[in-house]
Amino acid sequence: MDRLNKFQVIDFDLKTWNDFLGKDAQESHGRIIKGNLKAIFSNQTLNIFPSKNEVFNAFKLCSYDDVKVVILGQDPYPTVGHAHGLSFSVRSHIKPFPKSLNNIFKALSKDLNQAPPKNGDLTRWAKQGVLLLNCVLTVEEGKPNSHKNLGWEDFTDAVIQRLSNEKVGLVFLLWGAYAQKKRELIDTSKHCVLEAPHPSPLSAYRGFYDCEHFSKTNNYLAKNQITSIKW
Question: Is the pTM of this model over 0.85?
Answer without folding.
Answer: yes
